[in-house]
């Protein structure tokens, strides 16, 4: 196995889906992504090279439905303007991931509902 950056953010995102799927009560799903600086530009979802040799790395996790940041770590140097740009980019990326998390959970439970419809042994 090989990681190409983003293992912490991927783990946070996957763990939130797993907890929700297991029926663990949660205030909201948590989604995460990293932003950073490479070649003087703010970029989303850094790969290993950009993470290791770029000018900065900032993993961000949040509960989008609650608009609450749950993880923010910045390594490297960001100007105030770069920081604002990075946070905005991260929130946009997280919102995309959040929609996919919800869609995956909904799809699973809709398929289970379809399987159980019409079965006499399943209580409704």
Mean pLDDT: 90
Main β-sheet description: 5 strands, antiparallel
Question: In CATH terms, what is the architecture?
Answer: 2-Layer Sandwich
How many helices? The count is 3
Report, as a whole number of angstroms, the end-to-end distance: 44 Å
Beta percentage is 15-25%
Work out the helicity level: 40-55%
**How many domain regions?**
1
In words, what does this structure look like?
By secondary structure, this protein is of the alpha+beta class. The chain has a single domain (7-116), classed as 2-Layer Sandwich (Ribosomal Protein S5, domain 2). The chain is built from 3 helices and 5 strands. The longest helix has 37 residues, at 80-116. It is elongated.
Brief sketch in words of this structure:
With 124 residues, the chain is α+β, with helices and mostly antiparallel strands.
Key attributes of the depicted protein:
single chain; 124 residues; alpha+beta
Layout of strands and helices, then pairs:
Elements: H1 7-21, E1 31-38, E2 41-44, H2 48-53, E3 56-63, E4 68-72, E5 75-76, H3 80-116
């Amino acid at each position: 196995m090989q990681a190409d950056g983003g293992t912490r953010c991927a783990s946070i995102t996957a763990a939130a889906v797993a907890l929700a799927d297991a029926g663990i009560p949660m205030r909201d799903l948590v989604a995460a992504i990293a932003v950073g600086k490479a070649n003087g530009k703010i970029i989303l979802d850094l790969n290993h090279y950009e993470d290791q040799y770029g000018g900065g790395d900032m993993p961000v996790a949040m509960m989008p439905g609650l608009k609450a940041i749950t993880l923010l770590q910045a390594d490297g140097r960001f100007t105030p303007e770069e920081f604002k740009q990075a946070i905005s980019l991260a929130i946009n990326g997280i919102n995309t991931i959040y929609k996919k998390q919800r869609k995956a959970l909904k799809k699973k439970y809709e398929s289970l509902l379809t399987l159980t419809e019409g079965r006499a042994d399943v209580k409704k």
